Amino acid sequence: MLPSQEIYQQLHRYYGTPPTWSANPYQVMMESILVQNTAWNNVLKTRLAIGERYDPRFVEVCSQQELQELISSCGFWRAKATAIKALTAWLVQYEYDFSRVKQIPMADLRRELLAIRGIGEETADVILTFALVKASFVIDTYTRRFLQRMGYCFASDAERRAFLADGIEPDAAVFGRYHWLLLDHGKKHCKKQPRCNGCPFSSVCANTPVPLATAGCGRDQ
User: Fold this and answer.
1) Are 93 and 104 in contact (CB under 8 A)?
2) Closest CA to 181 of 3, 1, 14, 6
3) Rounded CA gap, 123 and 11, in Å?
4) Is the separation of the CB atoms in 96 and 60 below 8 Å?
């Protein structure tokens, strides 16, 4: 089976360099919540609705109802508005100073994010990597599905993260590109119903089109 570094290189050769996210860390934080259980196009609609108001000071003072209306394109707006408000309240203790937040050790920062209502492991790692420039590899459904179909067997996301990070420069920008490339691959080829024609891994993939098991592995799952 391929080592992580070769997977990354093949993805990069096939898809090229992925786009970068916003340079506004608060916008990335908000959109990491907005994208939960919805298509990215819906996030783009909300981005237009919010405009220049991707600012924690605006979110702090706007009403829950107003925030729900602004993000309604993304679905689950009540829960997402609550999570965004909670995340914003967390930032208040740092006076919205992202330079202070970035000085916190990554393990401590991850624990703080996970303690916020509505922030799960995937969203916390997205925030760490793309907003706070911490090298925390994002594990999502696309990544689990890809690794399973390739024949890798892991018992937990911690094992998946350790494998993917092995041999890769521990840099937030590199981890972010790797995650984005796996996301592109999942959308183009490694869907629920795989599209193996033209897949850059078709010659080495152990794929059998079966439902993804949370901790499954290999051909027989």
Assistant:
1) no
2) 14
3) 23
4) no
The C-alpha atoms of residue 186 and residue 20 are separated, in whole angstroms, by 18
What's the length of the chain?
221
Cα separation, 194 vs 45, whole angstroms = 28
Query: What type of residue sits at position 145?
Result: R
Separation CA 163–CA 117 (nearest Å): 29
Q: In terms of C-beta density within 10 A (0-12 exposed, 13-18 middle, 19 or more buried), how is residue 51 classed? A: exposed
* Host H or E run for residue 10: helix 4-15
Distance CA 3, CA 9 (A): 10
Single pTM value for the model: 0.90
- Amino acid found at 184: D
Nearest to 181 by CA among 49, 3, 1, 4: 4
Q: Is 83 helix (H, G, I), strand (E, B) or coil?
A: helix
Q: Going residue by residue through the chain (221 aa), what tens digit of pLDDT does each one get?
A: 899 999 999 999 999 999 889 999 999 999 999 999 999 999 999 999 999 999 999 999 999 999 999 999 999 999 999 999 999 999 999 999 999 999 999 999 999 999 999 999 999 999 999 999 999 999 999 999 999 999 999 999 999 999 999 999 999 999 999 999 999 999 999 999 999 999 999 999 987 554 455 444 443 33
